[in-house]
Design brief:
Helix Hairpins, three-stranded mixed beta sheet, 6 helices, mainly alpha
Amino acid sequence: MNNPCTALCEVKKTNKLRVFFEKIGKRNLIIACSVILIGAAVWLNWMLFAGKPADGYDGYDQPSGGVSDSLNQGGTSTDSATNATNTYFSATQISRQKARDEALEVLQAVVDNVEADEAMKSEALESIAAIADEIQKEANIESLITAKGFAQCVAVLNGDTACIVVQAEELQASQLAQINAIVYEQTGITPAGITIINK
């Protein structure tokens, strides 16, 4: 037999949840959770794939047959290594763009939602502006670093940290200093927050 006191407590808990959802609005709560999940997905994507070896991307942007076809037609192992490195940079740029496009799509949905309150819309617009600013800074960094003689570069900004991947056999102290200076000039991030990786 059910205890009446227990049943009354359950009704009060249910009412508190109902009032909470009515106050915030289910739709706004779902939108906020979606924005948080997209942000976490972008961060996790870069944490997992920023330092992946190039061989994990073999054939990603190659025509059917991939690298082995060029080897069979007289290519050398140097060609294979170059193709793998080029594939890494291409795959990383595509992955970064895809993650950004998905995040922008969710944020734009918040802005376009007529039922979203002004605070949510304002926060979404700020996030869109921040992503656009990061895209611009990353493009500037990549252009300036390749102008210093590196064949390829991918820059990934995440708040007060930056990860820079450059195509180079080995990095000299002067090259590291140049990269740190470029990132600092474009973002204000100090060398302590900058990770430089050569591929």
